[in-house]
Each structure stands twice: as structure tokens, then as C-alpha cells.
Amino acid sequence: MEDIIIIGAGLSGLSTAYRLKKAGISFKIIEAQDRLGGRIETIYGQDDTPMEMGATWFGKEHVNLLGLLSEFNIGYFEQHTEGIALFETMSFEPPQQFYVPANSHSAYRIQGGTYSIIDALYRHIGKENIVLNSKIIEIAAEDNKLKLTDNLENHFFCKYVIVALPPKLAIHSIQFSPELPQALIQVMQKTQTWMSGSIKFSVEYKKAFWKDKGFSGSIYSQSGLATEIYDHTNYEDTKFALKGFLNGSASHYTFAERKEKIIDQLKRYFGNEATEFISYNDKIWNDTYIQPNNDTFLPPHFNNGHAVFDESYMSNKLFFTGTETAKTFSGYMDGAIKASNAIADRISKII
Ligand SMILES: Cc1cc2nc3c(=O)[nH]c(=O)nc-3n(C[C@H](O)[C@H](O)[C@H](O)COP(=O)(O)OP(=O)(O)OC[C@H]3O[C@@H](n4cnc5c(N)ncnc54)[C@H](O)[C@@H]3O)c2cc1C
After folding, report:
1. 102 close to 54: Cβ distance less than 8 angstroms
2. Ligand 1 pocket, 12 CB below 6 A?
3. Domains observed in the chain
4. Tens digits of residue pLDDT in 124-162
């Protein structure tokens, strides 16, 4: 039997585990997917360009994230925004151009890609403490312990469990026995999961030709399939890409159709050079690792940081963490780390 099981190996689950390990407390992390990181996913293109399909930017006010980066000695750098930005309101009119000067209050990116932080956590936590490909479907109180069951009918036993999933997903995908209090269930069902349903894309290039033409790479479009686009050159200035978000309707197109439409859109702004790309990638964040089937819309950050997540349940054996439970910067990486630091502190006092 484990002392503690953490469900979910996203930034929250992993940073909780890291803090517990530092406090000398034993645990196991159980993750549904065959990879770590959850909403953090850095992919590498054909030319090895790191491209973020999930979390990318942070600000100087994100002190919990900055603290962890500094603990791991991971550097960061400013998002490139200097140059001509484009603003497109209608498809039949050329986009408006704005010159954006260098910005000292920029958004920042993590050197080597956001996954660097997941990798550092993994190395500190140790492979032996992580179980992959195990989707928890039931948590049941049994005598003086909790019994967890996964989709392959494996069982795990522990004294305490920390649920590090988006609350809305947790209440839809895990059966709790005995049932959780109604007040908690209702809040969980209506806690918005940040970025659930969003679609990110990246196009990898041999060089940042847009910069050579004076463009920053920042584009905002109300008429194209890509609604926001940014320069995605790496810290070393050796790998190049444009990256951004697609309109929600993009999920109705096939991958090939999305690719064709995005390259056409970029060609409209930058000419033929835009068609000489190395690779196109995109990711629709609508799988069952982030949202329930047939998910319904909730306003951004709705019920995030709700007081119900401060309580423990199932006779003080069940706890919640995850960015949606954070009181500040919920939804963001900073919130994930803040919530996890807090839960690890709390557990350290109980154990
Ligand atoms: C497209 C996108 C862009 C984003 N951009 C930014 C940004 O620029 N800046 C920023 O700060 N934040 C951004 N975010 C948000 C950021 O990614 C999250 O705040 C953070 O990664 C959340 O971590 P978490 O551990 O709380 O949750 P998650 O990352 O969702 O982790 C939950 C984990 O639980 C696993 N899981 C699910 N169900 C089960 C189950 N039943 N059993 C076991 N495991 C399960 C999942 O596979 C996942 O690994 C973005 C997110 C997305 C999707």
C-alpha cells in the first residue's frame, strides 16, 4: 500500500510529487496517458524545432513558476514582438499594419521549450514513482484505506489520494464511493477547464523570413482560420517557426484541410516564402484527458479557485490540486505550481 497516490502527471501532479519527495514523503503518480506533462506538450519538428502545442507564455508576476524555474536553473527569454504586426478584420481587405517597438514588459518563454520543466521534475521524482497508461475510473473507501481502480482493472491502495486533474474532468470520469457531497459535485461539474477545446498550430521554417521583411510574426485575424499567430524562434535563434491558435471551427476540417488553409493564410500575408515550410503540426485539445465527452461551455475560469477545493473529503483522505483549484492565476502554469506547493505543505503536516 502507498502512503499517497497522486492522480495525473501534469504540472500540478508532478510539482506536488517533487515537493513531497523533497519532504521525504513517499508517493506514486498515476497517469492515464503514455506521456507526462498534460497540458504542457512541446513537440519537435523535422528540423528539431521545439514547438509548443500547449502552455507557452508567462509573465513576471508568475512568481511560483519563476521560483521553480530558478530551482532547476532553467532559463527563459522574451517573446519576440518587435516589428510590424498585422491586424486583419475582413478577408477582402489587406490587413492593417502596426509597428510594435521592443517591449520591456513582454511575455516570456522557457528556454528549450516548456517541457524542460516537466523533464526536470521527472528527473527529480524518478521513473520508479510514476505509472503511465493507467486511467483511474474509481476511488472507493475500503476499511481504513482507499482503493483505486483503473480502466484496465488494476487496483492500487493508499492512505491518501491527491486528485491533480481538472475538476470537471475528474467528476465526469471517476466514480467516487461513497458519493462526494452534492455541493462539491455541483461546483466540480461547473468548473471551467482552461484552454479545453482550444486548437494550436505551428509551421516550421528554415529561416524567419518574416523578420527579414520587417514583420514581427504577430498577426491577429478576425477572418482567417488562424486567429492569432506569433513568432516561435527558439532562444538560440537557430530554429524557426510561426505558431498560434486556430478558430474553434477548425476541428470540423481534416488535418490536410487545416494545413492547406493555414499555409494559404500565411501566403496571403508573406507571399510565396510562406509555402516553403518544413512541417505543419496542430493539436485539438478536446480529448478525454482534458475534457469529458460532449463537454459543455462554461465562461473562462468559472469557479476556478472555489473554496470547496480547500477542503478534504472521504474522511480526510481525498485532496484536490490542479491549476483550476488555485486562488491566483488559476488555469495557468503558475496556478498549477501554487496549488501544488500548498497541497504538498498541507499533506506534509498530516503525514
Ligand atoms: C493550448 C493550451 C495553451 C496554454 N497556454 C498557456 C500559456 O501560454 N501559459 C500558461 O501559463 N498556461 C497555459 N496553458 C495552461 C497550462 O497548460 C495549465 O495551467 C497546466 O499545464 C495545467 O497543469 P495541471 O497539472 O493542473 O493539469 P493537466 O496538465 O491537465 O494535467 C492533468 C493530467 O491528468 C491526466 N489524467 C486525466 N484523467 C486521468 C485519469 N482518470 N487518471 C489518471 N490520469 C488522468 C492527464 O492526462 C494529464 O496528464 C495552456 C493550456 C493549453 C491546453
Report:
1. no
2. yes
3. 1-40+114-194+288-351 (3.50.50.60), 76-109+199-284 (3.90.660.10)
4. 999 999 999 999 999 999 999 999 999 999 999 999 999
